Inverse folding.
């Protein structure tokens, strides 16, 4: 008889990651729009409309902002809606009874957001370079991707806060209510410079604004505000969301 | 069983790893900015020397100098420099080397920075432009690399009163009407990365207008707020009174000299004492005169130096009457002479691309006008090099000294004999790389059209004149008409054909390129397909080019219903050298009304 197979911790993480990836991929109603909408929007507004005229400034600028928009979605929905659904359906409780480490659940969701993030960034990059003719220095291509991928974390935290409190149905509404207005008012669809000052002031409160400014810093098209301020805002909002999420979880398991 | 599970997990791990690796591979393969076309063929040495040349270093002339360039910067300047054997040497005898010129007043857009560079203008100071030009210019000027365009520093949006000068261009700029708003508007300019502050203090009364303008208190407040942030404040004026008021309000510089009125010596001295500089922009003022001299200057240029845009802006005229403006330039020249005599720093600026000006060329014209105003050749050349560099704090440019950027202009002859020599460019270097001097060398490639939809119309079609417009023989003296109306089924082209001219035609013109009249290469397609509904008349598809006379056309009949008309490209009979720049669908004889609804135009492969 063979020696008993031992599974390592890594196997547990991988298994959960695979399970969540498959589960998401099997809901094409979520997966496909998440991947396609950012590319579609960028194609329309960044490439076709923004690409008029000889300057590449518009498609380059909008690449950064639409990519920011794109990577926020999977993080918010994955954590916000995904978590709420799994809580409501009892799936989460089921997983809690297994030897799977609790962290594996969250790591898996983060991996999921990052996988989607990479796919979205890749699709926008291909559109930018292949269709609009955008060129950036190698360091900028890499740096922008890095900033955006790391930047999904505050939105994972935001989604976590929503998912810890809301049930499955409410979470969909709440995430949509947050996602789209926040994206719009942070200047992710239409450059923030187009809006009156009051919008710029309001935007300071949104992590999406700060992330998009950091992304724009990589290509030197940001508004010139301090990097430290943006990072602090993102860090602070992450902490706040984590605390909110923590309270929400404690409430449930009490 | 166990093996299957671990196998599956290993597979998952492998897939995730593969995904990450693929992503990283993509990042490393994405395109970087290309080198300019002129250096594509063979990378030149970035180390070279210009030997035994007459040098104007930004302030004065020096004879028999060697200038050693390395890695995009001027490495050394001196007499008989000791340099390694292998360096490429340019023989400077009989030539003069100047710092790359600085145009202190432009409004850059499109290809203008490239036009400027071909004329030896390596830096432009933009006095009112869009944030996107400024943003892309900032990263350009940090780099030392081969390029086909001049560096740009800019004021971004200018600060003006509600409804005042600057608000009429359709660009949404913020305005100020209250001194208390001054610090906030300065913050806004700085956040948008303006390199200095430009303020409008002008009712344009001198030109017969009565525009709203800032009051003196607001002007003072804005200048003070700019200075509180260590930022230069220049003021646009067109009258002497406004100019003196701006100087007293603390302006660091004045842009434009007044069209009327002579400044008194006392006032000129006051301006000099306050350290204020003036950028007269004689080129744009003289461009309004009926006897303007720019046209003759443009004719002295050999072929291929002017781009279509430069020719277009040169050809435009202000609508003023000539007689009035003949006086203007005389007064302006005399005022400049007095300012210079009093010691006021004079900066050369063209105010391109206003009518009668062109990027690059007009700065040389400005130099000639400054000569006419009585500035000596040293002051004239300094006005386009060291003086604007110092006035605007532009680093590393405007002088030929060790450590500065290798932005250089080599001309045949000596400007001290004839200032027009500055146009006789033998070489231009930017960041140490040579620049193509003619438009042909920076060849305008025809846009290759890939098979696909060239145009698709519906009710929401926005008629953008860059791409789609109505056209008829009226432009050649005929009387036919054409009107375009978006409808649900497509685009309706309708009008009346009038047979009063030899070649009656009227209809739709399509420019599939990035800009009107961009040459096209149709060789990738086999046919043109038009999906349309006619009215029974006969129509033609025309291919026309900018310069080659008669268009090529092929006719087709319509039968009143929806049709797909296929026209093989070969049927047009495109000959070698004919470069189509637009596609037209037009009605011709017989005379009468016509109406055609077109849904789409495709290039079929």
């Amino acid at each position: 008889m063979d020696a008993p197979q031992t599974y390592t911790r890594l196997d547990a993480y991988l298994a959960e990651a695979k399970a969540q990836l498959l589960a998401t991929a099997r809901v094409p109603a979520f997966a496909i729009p998440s991947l396609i909408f950012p590319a579609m929007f960028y194609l329309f507004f960044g490439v076709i409309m923004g690409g008029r005229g000889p300057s590449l400034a518009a498609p380059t600028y909008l690449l950064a902002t639409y990519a920011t928009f794109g990577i926020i979605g999977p993080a918010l929905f994955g954590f916000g809606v995904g978590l709420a659904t799994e809580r409501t359906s009892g799936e989460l409780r089921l997983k809690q009874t297994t030897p799977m480490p609790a962290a594996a659940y969250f790591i898996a969701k983060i991996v999921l957001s990052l996988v989607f993030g990479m796919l979205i960034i890749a699709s926008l990059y291909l559109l930018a370079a292949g269709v609009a003719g955008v060129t950036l220095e190698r360091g900028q291509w890499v740096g922008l991707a890095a900033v955006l991928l790391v930047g999904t974390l505050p939105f994972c935290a935001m989604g976590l806060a929503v998912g810890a409190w809301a049930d499955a149905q409410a979470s969909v509404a709440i995430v949509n209510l947050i996602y789209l207005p926040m994206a719009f008012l942070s200047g992710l669809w239409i450059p923030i410079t187009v809006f009156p000052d009051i919008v710029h002031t309001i935007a300071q409160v949104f992590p999406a604004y700060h992330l998009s400014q950091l992304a724009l810093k990589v290509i030197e098209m940001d508004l010139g505000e301090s990097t430290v301020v943006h990072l602090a805002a993102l860090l602070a909002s992450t902490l706040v969301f984590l605390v909110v999420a923590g309270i929400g979880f404690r409430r449930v398991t009490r | 069983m166990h093996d299957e599970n671990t196998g599956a997990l290993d597979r998952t791990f492998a897939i995730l790893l593969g995904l990450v690796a693929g992503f990283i591979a993509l990042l490393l393969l994405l395109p970087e900015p290309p080198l300019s076309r002129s250096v594509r063929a063979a990378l030149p040495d970035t180390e070279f020397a210009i030997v035994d040349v007459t040098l104007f270093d930004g302030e004065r002339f020096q004879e028999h100098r060697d200038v050693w360039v390395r890695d995009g910067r001027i490495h050394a300047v001196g007499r008989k420099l000791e340099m390694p054997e292998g360096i490429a040497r340019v023989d400077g005898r009989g030539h003069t080397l100047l710092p790359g010129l600085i145009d202190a007043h432009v409004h850059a857009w499109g290809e203008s920075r490239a036009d400027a560079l071909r004329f030896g203008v390596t830096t432009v100071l933009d006095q009112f432009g869009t944030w996107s030009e400024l943003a892309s210019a900032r990263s350009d000027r940090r780099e030392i690399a081969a390029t086909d365009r001049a560096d740009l520093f800019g004021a971004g949006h200018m600060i003006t009163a509600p409804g005042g000068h600057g608000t009429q261009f359709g660009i949404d700029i913020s305005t100020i009407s209250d001194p208390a708003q001054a610090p906030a508007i300065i913050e806004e300019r700085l956040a948008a990365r303006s390199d200095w502050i430009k303020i409008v203090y002008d009712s344009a009364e001198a030109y017969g207008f009565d525009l709203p303008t800032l009051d003196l208190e607001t002007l003072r407040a804005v200048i003070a707020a700019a200075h509180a942030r260590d930022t230069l404040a220049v003021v646009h004026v067109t009258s002497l009174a406004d100019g003196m008021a701006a100087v007293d309000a603390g302006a660091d510089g004045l842009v434009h000299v007044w069209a009327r009125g002579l400044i008194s010596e006392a006032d000129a001295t006051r301006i000099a004492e306050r350290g204020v500089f003036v950028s007269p922009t004689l080129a744009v003022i003289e461009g309004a005169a009926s006897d303007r001299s720019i046209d003759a200057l443009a004719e002295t240029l050999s072929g291929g130096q002017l781009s279509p845009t430069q020719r277009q802006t040169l050809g435009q005229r202000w609508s003023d009457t000539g007689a009035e403006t003949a006086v203007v330039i005389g007064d302006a020249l005399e005022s400049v002479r007095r300012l210079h005599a009093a010691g006021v720093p004079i900066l050369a600026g063209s105010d391109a691309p206003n009518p009668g000006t062109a990027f690059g060329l007009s700065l040389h014209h400005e130099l000639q006008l400054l000569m006419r105003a009585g500035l000596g050749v040293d002051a004239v050349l300094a006005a386009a090099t060291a003086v604007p560099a110092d006035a605007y704090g532009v680093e590393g440019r405007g002088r030929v000294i060790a450590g500065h950027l290798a932005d250089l202009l080599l001309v045949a002859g000596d400007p001290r004999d004839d200032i027009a020599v500055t146009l006789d460019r033998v070489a231009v270097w930017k960041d140490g790389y040579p620049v193509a001097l003619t438009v042909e060398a920076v060849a305008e490639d025809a846009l290759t059209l890939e098979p696909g939809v060239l145009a698709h119309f519906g009710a929401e079609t926005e008629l953008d004149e860059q791409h789609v417009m109505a056209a008829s023989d009226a432009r050649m003296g005929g009387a036919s008409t054409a009107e375009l109306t978006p409808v649900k089924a497509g685009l309706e082209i309708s009008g009346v054909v009038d047979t009063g001219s030899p070649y009656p035609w009227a209809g739709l013109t399509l420019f599939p390129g990035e800009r009107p009249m961009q040459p096209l290469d149709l060789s990738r397609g086999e046919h043109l397909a038009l999906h349309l509904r006619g009215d029974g008349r006969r129509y033609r598809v025309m291919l026309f080019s900018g310069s080659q006379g008669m268009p090529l056309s092929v006719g087709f009949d319509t039968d009143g219903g929806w049709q797909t008309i296929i026209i093989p490209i070969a049927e047009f009979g495109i000959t070698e050298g004919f470069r189509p720049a637009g596609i037209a669908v037009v009605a011709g004889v017989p005379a009468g009304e016509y109406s055609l609804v077109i849904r789409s135009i495709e290039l079929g492969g």
Residues 57-89 of chain A form the longest helix (33 residues).
